[in-house]
Design goal:
The complex is a heterotrimer of chains A (393), B (322) and C (288).
Chain A (H helix, E strand, L loop, with lengths): L7 H14 L9 E8 L6 H18 L1 E4 L2 E11 L4 H14 L4 E5 L8 H7 L2 E5 L14 E3 L4 H16 L3 E7 L2 H15 L7 E8 L7 H8 L5 E3 L5 H13 L5 E4 L6 H8 L6 E4 L8 H14 L7 H18 L4 H10 L11 E3 L1 H4 L4 E3 L1 E8 L2 E9 L4
Parallel strand pairs in A: 1-3, 1-4, 4-5, 5-6, 7-8, 7-9, 9-10, 10-11
Antiparallel strand pairs in A: 2-3, 11-14, 12-13, 14-15
Chain B lengths: L1 H14 L6 H25 L7 H18 L4 H23 L4 H21 L9 E2 L5 E2 L2 E2 L3 H24 L1 H8 L3 H9 L4 H27 L1 E2 L6 H14 L5 H16 L4 H18 L10 H12 L10
Antiparallel strand pairs in B: 1-4, 2-3
Helix pairs in contact in B: 2-6, 2-9, 2-10, 2-11, 3-4, 3-5, 3-9, 4-9, 6-7, 6-9, 10-11, 10-12
Chain C lengths: L4 H32 L6 H18 L4 H24 L6 H23 L13 E4 L2 E4 H23 L1 H11 L1 H6 L4 H23 L11 H14 L4 H22 L1 H18 L9
Antiparallel strand pairs in C: 1-2
Helix pairs in contact in C: 1-5, 1-8, 1-9, 1-10, 2-3, 2-4, 2-8, 2-9, 3-8, 5-6, 5-8, 6-8, 9-10, 10-11
The chains are: A alpha/beta (393), B mainly alpha (322), C mainly alpha (288).
Chain lengths: 393, 322, 288
């Protein structure tokens, strides 16, 4: 091909791309954009969809509100992160720098590290859905709030009472082989070891790769130690169902514990059948704690034809709470709103009255404190097991 | 004529950015990185090797630099070079074995390498385990840390220009034509018979390609200020292959066109991740089936189609791997 | 940790069963690769479609199991023929384009799968629930069923390839295509048939493995990686090799995990694979 003609196509492509690539400029006057920077595709999609829908319901319910004499409406914009760090960075860049988004719900402890610098530099108000602890909510990130119970909080609040109530003696853990899984196993171990005097032992610890479907070998190793309680950490619906099914096939007859926010009873009982019984799920409400909770559940069912993923209510509440605080402080300045938010409480949270804590443990008051439920699966349905409010300094 | 065109482009890339918004700078940075990755892969594909594991070498570069900067407080600039060097070293060591393999065996071996790399990073806390390493710093430039998009953009631009100049020389000069001669097992034998030391050429090309991958990978890690085993995945490697195929392997500018187009297109598809995969895959299939030779061959489409029809009549059903 | 016999025996049994499942999944890939030397990356997605088909036809629409399987076989045949004609045939001779095109096809199917089937984890109830207890070793019935299907299909494949004229034609094309064509073998028909059968094998594997685990549109990725591993270790083009390699990997994973832990077992499988390839580069029973 002749010399200069060879470059014709590439240059044309580059030019076309530059034109294509220029994103529509964002001039947000009346709409206030709130970002749902969450996975809506891929394996973690259920979490993201719950957040997206919760935020949209909140936006509808808030309607038009007034700040400093001007009227505004919340507009929820979704940026799919597919739970990938690189894509999350891209999503943040687009949301913050191009679309002018200042508030949002972001899912994922695993994807927060690369965006924390952007959050700090721009003061983005991050309502984080992240189970892991200190590296996200601490004194260096004044605009980051965790709107769900952290897993430290979860186990500190519920584990010992559950063990006592069920008369458990031998605890084993089988968790995902990632930071969350390893961290939680440590927390569980500490809690169990504190109960040594009562004859409770920590007997085994195994890990599986996220996405694995065959837990046979790991379970065999675990079961060899004869546990009567297997803690499965944040295993998602598919995994816990298969773990339960395969463990029972191998002869395990004890209880399971799970701490993930999105857990479908029907899916578990479809996959595992009767084997799914006696799974205790933290964060799952078997009975609606408030009327608002039940209303939202019905609303979701009517609109989407399926049960709401567990993240919906917290996202709904966080959105409304923040708008509330914005109205009260009369500004959109995220630093001022963050300060006001941390000092406020929210009695209308669908789970029950909510406030912030964590100053001693995390160095900043950015951890939500609200009632945490535990439910147990029996015959394909969740039954209430316990409710406690995590005390968290 | 050519030089003038390039001059204008370079001028634009250097002078326009201060006027651009941070988001556009972000897109520009990602595009530049992808272009370098794709062109590095191009060198290898030109030799007839399909690599589904380039992300492994990129990850090695990224982690090397991240570790040096966070654990030993080494200057980030040195870290970039170290990233490239370590990746190149690994390529040299592994190249001896893997380049002997051909076809799907090679592809699988590089893929296995990339998976092992990520598995090792995930398994040991020294590498940060599954959480990766956060707080990877930006480089210092005369006393200021380049924390802004604009500042770092120039770093990426400089590295990209440097890399592309070298990669171009690898692909479009006599060296590059020699590589073409090594494309299949048969032609390689032929080349050897006229005195070309195939192994040396292949190794050199492979090592050079991986050096730039490592270099840019290190820069990538410092851009995100974070490295983890979940950033440089198999899907990342596949994307690079797609950029090459869509752009076309007939010219050095093919992969450039492919990366620029698909990266910017991808950035527009924010609603849901699988739309982006779908679009990439459909574009890929359309190009492979209807626009053989990729986008750069579009001006010659009629000739290309005719040639294909001619060639096709005599094809064996059992496609022998090269 | 104490390692005692009953545990190892159970592990071995599970390992063998899992290995047979791997073989079931890898069969379709072996056939297509063995005859046409085409790397069918879409294999995992066809497996996924087979599983989804059972879900929608049998579970949701209520069609009985046997007619469901008939429909799945028919659809897989059709899909295989279309893809062979539309994509593989067009790209004949271009190894690189073929591989990348099959990757493209797999991405398209997977993406459409996510959009069409949604993100919820789904399941197919067991065809044969319950456990068989054999001297204290517990074997789930549904896995035994899938293993049985695998055995039948392997036997059928052997019969087809080594005892029928069609198989003879396939082997002829694979061994020396020009001569085969000269002797009147219709290469195009062999190609179409091979691909179609490969797709059918993948879809049926999906249909029978579906109740054992759960379903989601991304479920095709792991089977294809595993299948590749197995046919490479077993030797490309050898059915026996695939069977041996599948069993080996299954047992290694299971027993290895019991003795050394899951992560180590994963690594062990890799190491063994590399060792096999170093000693016998063409695979256990492969011929170059």
């Amino acid at each position: 091909m002749t010399g200069s003609r060879r470059f014709l196509v590439p240059f044309a492509v580059v030019a076309l791309s530059v034109i294509l690539g220029l994103p529509p400029s964002a001039h947000a006057q009346k709409p206030v954009k709130m970002g749902a920077i969450v996975p809506v595709s891929g394996p973690a999609a259920a979490f993201g969809l719950g957040v997206q829908r919760g935020m949209e319901f909140a936006a509808e319910d808030v309607g038009v509100f007034t700040v400093a004499g001007e009227k505004y409406k919340v507009e929820v914009v979704t940026y799919d992160t597919v739970y990938d760090p690189g894509k999350t960075v891209a999503a943040m860049n687009r949301a913050v720098y191009n679309d002018g988004v200042k508030y949002g719900v972001i899912i994922g402890a695993g994807v927060h590290p690369p965006i924390l610098p952007i959050i700090r530099e721009t003061g983005f108000l991050d309502l984080a859905f992240a189970a892991a602890g200190r590296q996200i909510t601490n004194g260096e990130n004044p605009t980051v709030f965790r709107i769900m119970a952290s897993s430290d909080q979860l186990y500190q609040t519920h584990l010992q009472p559950i063990i006592e109530r069920l008369n458990v003696k031998r605890v084993a853990t089988l968790g995902p082989n990632d930071e969350l899984g390893k961290n939680d196993a440590k927390v569980v171990k500490t809690q169990v070891e504190a109960m040594k005097a009562k004859g409770v032992q920590f007997v085994a610890e195994e890990y599986y790769e996220r996405g694995a479907k065959d837990f046979g070998p790991a379970l065999l190793r675990l079961i060899a130690h004869k546990p009567d309680f297997i803690e499965t950490d944040g295993s998602p619906t598919g995994s816990i169902a298969l773990i339960a099914k395969q463990a029972r096939e191998l002869g395990f007859t004890g209880y399971f514990l799970n701490s993930t926010a999105v857990l479908e009873a029907k899916a578990i009982s479809d996959i595992a059948g009767k084997a799914g019984d006696n799974i205790i799920a933290l964060r799952i409400w078997a009975k609606a704690p408030t009327q608002l909770y039940a209303q939202l559940a019905d609303r979701h069912q009517k609109k989407y034809g399926e049960a709401a993923p567990g993240t919906m209510w917290e996202a709904y509440a966080a959105t409304k709470w923040v708008v509330d605080v914005i109205q009260k402080t009369g500004t959109f300045d995220t630093k001022k709103v963050a300060d006001a938010l941390a000092q406020s409480t929210y009695p209308e949270h669908p789970f029950g009255p909510a406030s912030w804590g964590g100053e001693k443990t995390y160095g900043a008051k950015r951890q939500i404190i609200l009632p945490i439920p535990a439910a147990i699966l029996k015959d394909g349905k969740w039954e209430p097991f316990d409710v406690r409010t995590g005390k968290f300094d | 004529m050519k030089a003038a065109g390039f001059g204008v482009l370079l001028l634009a890339l250097v002078t326009l950015p201060p006027l651009a918004e941070p988001y556009m700078l972000h897109v520009a940075i990602v595009v530049l990185m992808n272009v370098v990755y794709a062109e590095a892969l191009y060198v290898i594909m030109r030799m007839g090797y399909l690599s589904f594991g380039h992300a492994g070498y990129i990850a090695v570069g990224a982690y090397t630099s991240a570790l040096l900067a966070t654990k030993l407080d080494v200057s980030v600039w040195l870290g970039f070079l170290a990233g490239g060097a370590v990746a190149a070293l690994l390529a040299w060591l592994l190249g001896a074995i893997t380049l002997k393999l051909r076809g799907i065996y090679f592809s699988l071996s590089v893929f296995a390498f990339a998976e092992v790399v990520n598995a090792v990073f995930r398994a040991f806390d020294f590498f940060g385990g599954p959480a990766g390493i956060a707080g990877v710093p930006r480089p210092m430039f005369f006393g200021t840390r380049l924390n802004t998009h604009l500042g770092f953009y120039y770093v990426v631009l400089a590295a990209a220009v440097f890399s592309l100049v070298f990669l171009y020389r690898l692909a479009a000069t006599r060296f590059g034509f020699t590589l073409l001669a090594l494309r299949t097992r048969d032609t390689e034998g032929l080349a050897e018979s006229v005195g070309i030391d195939a192994a040396r050429y292949k190794t050199l090309a492979f090592v050079a390609s991986c050096f730039f991958c490592g270099l840019m990978g290190a820069i990538h890690g410092h851009y995100l200020r974070f490295v983890s085993p979940f950033v440089f995945t198999f899907f990342f490697s596949t994307d690079l292959v797609i950029f090459n195929m869509v752009g076309g392997l007939g010219s050095f500018w093919g992969p450039l066109a492919g990366s620029v187009l698909l990266t910017t297109l991808g950035e527009q598809l924010f609603a849901a991740g699988y739309y982006k995969s779908l679009v990439y895959a459909v574009v890929l299939l359309v190009v492979i089936l209807a626009l053989p030779g990729g986008l750069i061959q579009v001006p010659r489409l009629r000739e290309v189609w005719a040639a294909r029809r001619l060639r096709w009549a005599r094809q064996p059903v059992a496609t022998t791997e090269r | 940790m104490e390692v005692y016999l009953p545990l190892l025996a159970q592990g071995l049994a599970i390992g063998v069963l899992t290995g047979i499942l791997y073989v079931l999944v890898a069969l379709g890939l072996t056939l297509i690769y063995g005859i046409l030397h085409i790397v069918n990356f879409a294999h995992g997605e066809i497996y996924m479609l087979g599983a989804m088909a059972v879900l929608y036809l049998h579970v949701v629409a209520g069609l009985a199991l046997v007619p469901t399987l008939v429909v799945i076989v028919a659809l897989a045949l059709l899909l295989g023929l279309c893809i062979e004609r539309g994509i593989f045939r067009v790209l004949r001779g271009q190894w690189l384009q073929l591989v990348v095109a099959s990757v493209g096809v797999s991405l398209v199917i997977q993406s459409i799968g996510w959009i069409a089937f949604g993100i919820q984890e789904k399941s197919v109830p067991s065809y044969l629930p319950g456990i068989v207890d054999l001297f204290g070793i517990r074997l789930p019935r549904e896995r035994l069923l899938a293993a049985g299907v695998a055995v039948v299909l392997v036997a059928a494949l052997y019969w087809l390839v080594y005892r029928t004229r069609v198989g003879l034609a396939m082997r002829a094309i694979e061994e020396d295509e020009e001569t085969a064509r000269m002797l009147g073998v219709n290469a195009n028909r062999v190609a179409s048939l091979s691909v179609a059968l490969g797709f059918v094998l993948a879809a049926v594997a999906g249909a029978f493995v579906a109740p054992i685990y759960s379903l989601n549109p991304g479920m095709g990725l792991e089977p294809i990686l595993m299948s590749f591993l197995i046919i490479i270790v077993g030797g490309l083009g050898s059915i026996t090799g695939t069977v041996l390699a599948g069993l080996l990997v299954g047992v290694l994973q299971s027993v290895g995990a019991i003795l050394f832990g899951s992560e180590a077992a994963y690594g062990l499988v890799f190491v063994v694979m590399i060792a096999v390839l170093v000693v016998r580069p063409a695979g256990l029973l492969g011929r170059v």
